Amino acid sequence: MAEIHPLSLAIFILITVATLLISIYASRRVRTAGHYYVAGGGVRWFVNGFAIAGDYLSAASFLGITGLIAFAGYDGFIYAIGFLAGWIVALFLVAMPLRAIGKFTFADALTTKFKSRSIRLMAAISTLVVSVFYLIPQMVGSGSIVGPLIGLDYEVGVIIIGGLVVFIVATAGMVSTTWVQFIKGFLLLIAVIGLTVGVLWVAGMGPFEFIGKIISSNITLPSGAQVTGEAFMSPGLKYKDPLDFVSLSMALILGTAALPHILIRYFTVPKPSDARKSTVIAIIVMGIFYLLILFLGLGCIYFFNQGVTGVINPADANLSAPLLAQYIGGDVFYAIISSIAFATILGTVSGLIMASAGAIAHDIYAEVLKKKMDEKRALRISKLTAVGVGIIAILLGILSKGQNVAFLVGLAFAIAASANLPALLCTLFWKRTSEMGLVMGIAAGLVSSIMLIVISPTMMGSGAIFSLNNPGIISIPLGFAVTIGVSLMSKSEVKEVITEKTAT
Amino acid sequence: MRSILLPTDGSTPALVATAKAVEMAKEREATLIILKVIETAPIVDVERMAESSALMRPGEDGDGVEYAKELADAERVPFKVLIKEGPVVGEILRAVEEEKAELIVLGTSSLRGLNRLYLGSVAKAVVSQAPTSVVVIKPTPEEIDKVKSLLRRVIEPSPEKAVRSIIRTRQFRIGVYLFATYVIAYGAFILAGSYAKDLFRQEMLGMNIGTVTGITIILVTIALAIGFNWYAGRSEGAS
Fold this sequence. Notes:
The structure holds two protein chains of two kinds.
Chain A: H1 6-27, H2 33-38, H3 45-56, H4 59-72, H5 74-85, H6 87-101, H7 106-110, H8 117-150, H9 154-203, H10 207-216, E1 218-220, E2 226-228, H11 229-232, H12 242-255, H13 260-263, H14 272-305, H15 320-368, H16 375-399, H17 407-429, H18 435-454, H19 457-460, H20 472-489, H21 494-503
Antiparallel strand pairs in A: 1-2
Helix pairs in contact in A: 1-9, 1-15, 3-9, 3-14, 4-5, 4-14, 4-15, 5-14, 6-14, 8-9, 8-15, 8-16, 8-17, 8-18, 9-14, 9-15, 9-16, 12-17, 12-20, 14-15, 15-16, 17-18, 17-20, 18-20
Chain B: E1 3-7, H1 12-28, E2 31-38, H2 45-54, H3 65-74, E3 79-85, H4 88-99, E4 103-107, H5 113-118, H6 122-129, E5 133-137, H7 141-155, H8 159-167, H9 170-195, H10 197-201, E6 203-204, E7 207-208, H11 209-238
Parallel strand pairs in B: 1-2, 1-4, 2-3, 4-5
Antiparallel strand pairs in B: 6-7
C-alpha cells in the first residue's frame, strides 16, 4: 500500500463528485438513442472543440510525452508533433463530409452508401479492436499512477476509474461524456500553461533562451548516461531504426482521423460547418498543448541537471509531469496536476467506451442482427452494453498489471490508419468504391496490421520475423491497395441503388 | 422542340402541378420550362404572411424550382429554368411566347371567402389570356399528402448528395491542396529527421534547425486551421 496524499485525495474526490453530479444532471435529458449516442446532435462547436481535445489528449499525451521528452529529448518532441499533425487530415478531408453522412457510429458513416450488413459488421469489429488497443494502456495507466499520486493500490485505482466511467456513460452517454471531456480539455490546457510558466519562471529564462541553454550544455540522462545537449535535442536518442520511426509517423498522421472514439465526436454537432469549427478549436487547444509540453519535458531534465533529483523518477518516466509540478509549486500544485491526470483518463476512457458500446449495441445487435426494438429498449440495451464494456475494461486493466502496454497506443493508430482510413476516404471521395472493396479493405488492414504486430520485435523480441515495431508502413498502403483493387475488380452497384431510391 | 411551361411559386398546388407537368412532359417527350417569377410589386409583410398561409407554402425555402429540377431529373425529363422579375401574369404570358411552349401547367388553390377575392386570380388571368392550352391543377387532399412526402426528401438532401455538395465547394478543394502541401512538408520533415540527422543539428536562432522546424510545424498547423476556417466561413456566408 502506497502512502496516502491527503490533498491529492481530496481534489480527486472533488473531481469524482463533480463528475457524478454532472452525469446525474445530464441523465434527465437523455431519453432516446440519439441523445445517448450523439447528445441529440446539439452540442455547440466551441464545446465540442474542447471536448475533442479532451477526448484525444490521453494520459499517453500528458504524462507519456512529458516523460518521453525528459528521457529522450527531441524524439519525444517529434512524437508530440506527429500527434498534432494527424489533425490536418480531420480538418481538411474528414470533418465536414463525415458530419453529413454520419449518424451514431463509424459504421453508420460507412453504410450510408451501401446498406450492407457485412460492411457494418467489419466496421464494428474494427472499432472494437482499435478501441480496446487504445483502452488497455489507459486502464493500466490509471492503475499505475494512482499509487504514487494519491496513495491507492493498482487494483483500487483501476476499479475506481472504471467504475466512474461506467457511471458517466451509463447515466447519460454522450451528454455527460461531452461535459467531462470539455472540462478535462480545459483543465489540461490550464495545467500545461501553468507548468510552462512555472518552469520558465523558476529557470529565470525566456522560452527560446531556455531551449538554447539546454542545447549548449551537457546533459546527464535519468539513466546516468552523459550526452551533449546537441545530441539530446536532435533525433536518434530513442528511435534507432529510421524506418521504424517513419512507420510510426505514418500511423500517427493517418490514424488520428480514423480513431472511432474521435470520429463519433463529429456526430454531436448540428452542421458540417460546426464540425470544421470544432476541429479548429481542437487544433488550437492541442497545438498549444503539444508546443508547451516541450517545456515540461525539458524542464524536468533541466532541473535534474541542476541537481534537483526529485524532479525525475528514473524508474518511471510517466511521473515526470506531477514531480515537476511538485518541484515548482509544492504539494498543492502536485495535487492539482495529479488530479488533472485522473480527469484526463476519465475523459478518454469515456469516449472509448462510448465508441465500443455503439459498435456492439447499435451496429452489431440492432443493425446486423436486426433486432426490432422501440426507443426505450434501444436506450436500455445501449446503457447495459456500456456497463458491460466498462466491466471488461476493468478486467483487462487488472489482467495487464505490470505489463508494458504503452506501445499499444501507437499500434491502435496503425490499425485505425490501415483498416478505417482507406474505407472512410474511399466512401467519401471515390465513386467506384464497392461493397466488397470496403469489406475486404477493412479486413486486410485489420489482419495485416495485427499479424505484423504479432511477428514484430515488440512481441517476439530479438528473433522477430518482421523488423519494425510499428506495422504502419506496410499495412496502411496494403489497406488502401486492397480497398481500391477489390473495388475496381468487383462490379459497382452504386448506380442501381441511386435510381431505385429516387424512383420510389 | 416541344416544351411545356410550368410556372411555380413553391405553393402546394404548384408542387402538385409540378408532378403533373413532369409526367406530361415525359409522355410527350417535351422539355420542361420551369418558371419562377419574382414579384416586383411591393408587398408588405403581413400580406406575404397571409398569402403564404393561404397558399399553403411550405416556408421561405421551398421556392419550387429545386423541387421541379429534382423531379425532372429523376424522371430524366430535360428541363430549363427561367427566373424572371415582374408582374406574375405578364411574365408567364411572355415566357409562353418566347419559349413557344405548347402547354401551360399550373396549380390553383380552392380558396374561399376573402382570400378568393384577394388572391387566386393568376390561374384565371392566364387561362383567359394565354395563346395556348392551359392545364389548371386543383389538388385533392391525397395528392397534397403525396407531394409533401416527396418534398421532404427534396428539401432534406440524401447524405450522399450532402457529401457531394460539400466536396464540390471551392473551399473544400483548396483544403485538399493545403492538405497535400502539408503532408509533403511533414513527410520531408520526418524523412530529414530520420535520414539526415546532421542537418537537424545545425545551429539556428540560438537553437538548432530540428527544434526550430518542429516549433514552426506546430505554429503553422494552428495558423492553417484558423486561416482555413476564416476563409471557409467567409465563403459560407457569401453563398
